[in-house]
Write a structure and sequence with these properties.
Radius of gyration: 25 Å
Number of helices: 2
Largest sheet: 4 strands, antiparallel
Helix content: 10-25%
Order of helices and strands: HEEEEHEEEE
Strand content: 35-45%
Distance between the termini: 79 Å
């Protein structure tokens, strides 16, 4: 034990004597360029080293909707919710397998939906193909929610509007 202390202690103390500046600087990943659809001058928090994943702060939801197969290709669709100023923007993307390349995208534009704050997003496959996505608003002061429906088919095929029961 005494021999161990005589050998290890000087090495440990020598390590403490090395100045902090002698350590190699941490490598930080370069910030990606701003998105093409980002308005000029909009300040966007860019992902930095140490982030688990680099998702811009304006993105509030990403939901895999379901699979699709058309024209000899297959993949999956997803719904992306993002803030644009004081409004929410929803986009549906169709990604091809196996590389995840976006092959089509549709921005859902509905003036009424843009004013709402969506919370829950749930997807249910259709029996005849396609996916139905339900988007619930956050409860209002009375605890009531509105539900909007998004029907996603093959790439480019999407319908969006308030639920009618």
């Amino acid at each position: 034990m005494n021999v161990f202390i005589r050998l290890v202690l000087p090495i440990a103390l020598a390590g403490l004597a090395v100045p902090a500046g002698a350590q190699a600087p941490s490598q930080q990943a370069p910030s990606p360029p701003p998105a093409a659809d980002q308005p000029a001058g909009e300040a966007e928090r860019q992902p930095v080293a140490g982030d688990k994943i680099g998702v811009p702060a304006r993105v509030w939801a990403v939901r895999i909707a379901g699979g699709w197969e058309a024209n000899g290709k297959k993949g999956f669709s997803r719904v992306i919710g993002a803030f644009e100023g004081d409004r929410q923007k929803l986009t549906v993307q169709w990604l091809a397998e196996p590389d995840g390349q976006v092959i089509d995208a549709v921005d859902l534009s509905d003036d009424e939906a843009a004013k709402l704050t969506f919370g829950d997003i749930r997807a249910e496959p259709e029996e005849k193909g396609g996916i139905t996505v339900f988007l619930d608003t956050v409860p209002d002061n009375d605890g009531l929610r509105d539900t909007w429906v998004l029907v996603i088919g093959d790439p480019g095929d999407v319908r969006f509007g308030p639920a009618t029961n």
